[in-house]
């Protein structure tokens, strides 16, 4: 069994053009209208994925 991430940073949803649907490991401070600082912060999932890569196993 494997794991494939959708994107490393939050990105605009291709189907709905929404930024509020967040898929990445890195949070981007921007809303659906382009307002925000565009500052990037690591999410909890970033640390989880980092451990997956380091250990070569999925930790649930």
UniProtKB/TrEMBL annotation:
Residues covered by the GGDEF domain = 21-60
By its UniProt entry, which InterPro entries does this protein fall under? GGDEF_dom, GH, Glyco_hydro_1
Kindly give the SUPFAM superfamilies that the UniProt entry links to this protein: (Trans)glycosidases
Which Gene3D superfamilies does the record associate with it?
Answer: Glycosidases
Q: Where is the signal peptide?
A: none
What GO MF annotations does this protein's record show? hydrolase activity, hydrolyzing O-glycosyl compounds
Kindly provide the name given to this protein in its UniProt entry: Glycosyl hydrolase family 1
Source species of the chain: Lachnotalea glycerini
């Amino acid at each position: 069994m494997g794991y494939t991430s959708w994107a490393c940073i939050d990105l605009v949803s291709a189907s709905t053009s929404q930024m509020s649907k967040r898929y990445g490991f890195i949070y981007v401070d921007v809303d659906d209208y382009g307002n925000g600082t565009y500052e990037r912060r690591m999410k909890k999932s970033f640390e989880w994925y980092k451990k997956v890569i380091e250990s070569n196993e999925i930790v649930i």
